[in-house]
């Protein structure tokens, strides 16, 4: 009898300890979540200031911070086609306090950069494909060409002519490679750490032509500092109605710049849902839509599934260019 009582007492003590430990762990978890949701959110921008990703960050950061109830701190982390910022995102705690704006290079870095320490399709939570902007083909102002066929003739007569992009595997790189494949051109790729430094060299006459988002080139086209040749969209741009589409010369050539919101994999479901909801609400705000439109962006405001599908589609397009040796691997 005494032994049974002692055994029962021991079990009760263990249960109390277990309950206490679970209660403490639960409290710690709740406290950590509350703490994380009161901290500033780091919004990583994988490219230099002045490009499409940076523009997107500046347009949405304040409104998104208000929706989340947390200030947004924009941090530019340029380098390696956006993979440096992506690697930093992977190392961050999946608590919603570190997010990243992914550019289209995210779809191809795993194929062009060796030694990435993350899996493009398994290490990230792709929350929302935010916006796209058509790519536009432009030439330096003193290049002696006026139209697309004139440019093709010039490039065939000058093999090795240089073109700039915002990085290897960027939309600009893919469009240039597709054009080279379709018209059998031999050109020299000059990658930059974003569209802004590339445009500086284009304006300075250090490269011959470039593909980049209309959003970052529009002011330079309107001022006459570069000459627009063709726009990479299914229809002509309302902002540049006299500029033909690329598909008028090369059917099917359309690969826009896109920007989406990504997070580390493994966020708590309530935190994830909160961020997705806040982002979608921001992109439905008429003032935000207007600001994007004025800067030549089209608001997409997608689901995670749509974003992931776009990523895989563009990865396949780049993969085919690599197989055909039009795009080389570092």
TrEMBL record:
**Keyword list, A-Z:** Receptor
The organism's superkingdom is given as Bacteria
InterPro entries with a match to the protein in the record: BUG (IPR005064), Bug_dom1 (IPR042100)
Coiled-coil-forming residues are none
Q: CDD domains recorded for this chain? A: PBP2_Bug_TTT (cd07012)
One matching Pfam family is TctC
Family indicated by similarity? Belongs to the UPF0065 (bug) family.
- Name the UniProt record assigns to this protein: Tripartite-type tricarboxylate transporter receptor subunit TctC
* Organism whose genome encodes this protein: Ottowia thiooxydans
